[in-house]
């Protein structure tokens, strides 16, 4: 079920590095946050509603699952991150992205993946951290979009620097050398441009209330949560059926990460472990992101791990099987080898 999560105040999402007054003077935030932030928020929400008992903790661990993470702005259309094979030409003055083209490399290397194609543009281009709406994503996945308009995060959020200092509990005065600054995010630029998280979450046979409040991010800032109807346009059955038909005809498909993913082989997804026989053609991925978290059951931080960032794209040739089987295996198993219940490895399939 889809829920809209809207912070009522500025929020802080840590970058996954140690931070504390007296050690590091700046707490650098990250946006957008990993799906584990929303997973933790809904787990805590359930425990606040049902009670902090061991039985409820076990229920949360076994049943809460993040199945999708999207965004909405003032127009109520759902948005997702701009895929990384869409880039901005440096001479372009508008928020418009163009697709990279796949080419055979003109030089040979001794790399293990020497047969991979390169994604290339004849123009000077750059990556952008942005969102595209659900209808643009639909056209992109169907392979019928050339230029796509996007919304920059800086157009819908505001970064607020806040100064703090740690207090000495014995004297109730400020500790010397414990001044620090944190980067908070206000998910709005003005009254017309407000950003919301849209979270697809399931909790076994339990249904969360239609409306309520939960704690989100560092310091557990308050956020409104409200159930909404519908699914993203690019996940509707008629759209997926059209994509399946094209993949069955061409034998090629692309895999787009909606959320970060952990892979055993570093940056490469292991489709064979999912029962999918496919050959990678090329890929466009971003820099790895560090993911940590808090283990509620054990009461200590989770180990830091490197993940492939959301928006990364992989091109494949399907060697056997049908597109219908491909969709079923990807949606059923996810693509991250760990922490998939927290929302890691959520992906969508498109045509090349």
Quick description:
The protein has helices at residues 35-50, 54-63, 134-141, 237-250, 323-333, and strands at 2-7, 26-27, 64-72, 78-81, 86-89, 96-99, 101-103, 118-120, 125-126, 130-133, 147-149, 151-152, 158-168, 173-186, 188-190, 193-194, 196-203, 211-216, 221-228, 252-257, 278-284, 289-291, 294-295, 300-301, 305-307, 313-318, 347-350. The strands form eight sheets. An eight-stranded antiparallel beta sheet has the order 12-10-4-3-17-1-19-18. It has five helices and 27 strands.
Describe this structure in words.
The structure is a single chain. By secondary structure, the protein is an alpha+beta fold. It has two domains: 2-73 and 157-228, no CATH class; 99-147 and 233-350, Immunoglobulin-like, CATH 2.60.40. Helices cover 17% and strands 37% of the residues. The protein has five helices and 27 strands. The strands form eight sheets. Strands 12-10-4-3-17-1-19-18 form an eight-stranded antiparallel sheet. A four-stranded antiparallel sheet has the order 9-5-6-11, with no helix packed on it. A hairpin with a 5-residue loop joins β3 and β4. 33% of the residues are buried. The mean pLDDT is 87.
